[in-house]
Amino acid sequence: MKYIIRSLKYFCYLILLLTLIILALVLTGFVEADLSKMFVNGYDSLWQIALVMLAFAALYPRFGFSKRTVHLYGSPEELRPDIVRVMEVLGYCLEEEKDGTWSFLRRSGMSRALKMWEDRITITASAAGLEAEGLTRDLPRVVSALEATRPDA
Prior knowledge:
alpha+beta, 5-stranded antiparallel sheet, 54% helix, elongated
């Protein structure tokens, strides 16, 4: 279900972005305001563009969100202070904590809005260390910061 919601959000985001770009081009006079003259195939181009955006939106959650192992060992109670401190330095605040799982959200409302409110990083204790899950582009920074907290581990 999360996958479908993320896809729909991204589809809406792409439509909004395209609309703003077209509006800017019309207002600056680069293109005519008539859609039939704006695109090669006229109004047929709209559904073609929507299909391309739908394909991108359907693939985005698969590549945009991932899970990585954090090589940080110890009990969750022992690791908690370091994890919370590092995440606060990175601009996250603790949202929820239960059963060895921590959920963090961005503190900045602007940052959350730009990420379509899909900014959650979840850290879970596992046998291999910790598992971090969230936006693929944010995870390397989070994982390396967490691993740097305890160089002896």
